[in-house]
Every structure is written in C-alpha cells, then in structure tokens.
Specification:
0% helix, mainly beta
Length: 196
C-alpha cells in the first residue's frame, strides 16, 4: 500500500538517486524516503524533513543502503533516526546490493524527540547473511556534529560490527556520540571524536 512520504520504494522496486534535494517532506515513517528495496543515493541533500515515528529523512525496512556524498541537515523524528532509521537489514558484503555503506556523509543538527533515540542514525535488527565474508556496516569519511538530543548514532544488534573510518564526531551534546546495545561491536579507525 501507499506510504505517506516523499518517495516510496516498495517490494520489487529499487532506485538510484543522483543530485536530488529533499526538503520539507514529512510522513509517519521516512519523512523524505521510505524504502523496502535497495537504495543507491549520490550527492544528495536532506534538509528539514520530518517523520512522526522513524527516519526523519530515510526509513529503511529491510532495504540495503549505499549513500555517498549525502548531507543530512535539520531532519527530525519522533522515536528514532532523526536522519536515518534502518531496520531488519541483512548485510552480505559478497553482494554490493546487500550492504549498508555511508561514504562522505555529513550529519548536522538532526534531532529525535525520544531521549534514548538516535538523532542522526539508528540501526536496529541488522544481521549478517550466512557465508558473508564481512560483518561490517561502514561509515567512511563522515561528519557528525551539532546533535543536541538522543545519541548521534545508536545501533542495536549482536551480529554486526559498525566501523567508523576517517570520521569526525564533534559538538554533539545529547545522550552520547555513539551508543551500542545488544553486544554490538564497534571499531573506530583514524577518526576524531571531541567536544561531545
């Protein structure tokens, strides 16, 4: 059925979105984009989008994401994922369409009403495909700053490792810069975390 959002990718569809600005969209889940299928997004911006529940800019329900050179600024959600909420995703690094990667992402002043939620990115129920050569969900060359509610990144899964490579996490004054639950693994490489 239809989903109240800017762009819906329901079962059986996929999209590559290049150089698009999403601004001022709203919905219940996924203010700008709700996806159940693979989404590849390059050089886009999400500004002042909102969701009543999850994913102020993007809500992924079982969909893998590849985001490069994307900016998330001033997006908000009621429960989780002021910018991105990814739920029930299966990672398989042997298949590029079954992975979650965010490259050169900028997350600024996104917010969440839930004090225990994620102001920027929420990862929940992420699992690894049997036989996958890698169990990582990657943030590469990303900036997280100016989040004043919840945690900047929250992930809840005991199957995956979340890697921050060459990232800067600065000026986030909410619950935490990064919060983990359910024995999730975290690896931070060549990154700067200060002033949080």
């Amino acid at each position: 059925g239809a989903v109240d959002t800017g762009l819906s990718l329901l079962s059986g569809s996929s999209a590559t979105v290049d150089h698009v600005v999403f601004t001022g969209n709203s919905g219940t889940t996924g203010g700008a984009i709700y996806t159940e299928e693979f989404l590849s997004l390059h050089a886009g911006s999400f500004v002042n989008n909102s969701a009543t529940l999850y994913g102020g800019a993007i809500a992924s329900n079982g969909a893998n994401l590849y985001l490069a050179d994307v900016t998330f600024d001033g997006n908000s959600a009621g429960q989780n994922g002021g910018a991105i909420d990814a739920t029930n995703v299966v990672i398989d690094d042997d298949n590029p369409e079954e992975d979650v990667k965010i490259l050169r992402g900028t997350f600024n002043a996104n917010s969440v009403t839930n004090p225990n939620g994620a102001a920027a990115v929420s990862l929940y129920g992420i699992s690894v495909a049997p036989g996958s050569s890698d169990e990582d969900m990657d943030f590469d060359n990303c900036f997280f700053y100016g989040h004043t509610s919840g945690a900047s990144v929250v992930y809840r899964s005991n199957d995956i490792e979340v890697d921050f490579n060459f990232c800067t996490i600065n000026g986030n004054t909410g619950l935490a810069a990064i919060a983990s639950a359910y024995d999730g693994n975290l690896e931070i490489n060549d990154s700067i975390i200060w002033g949080n």
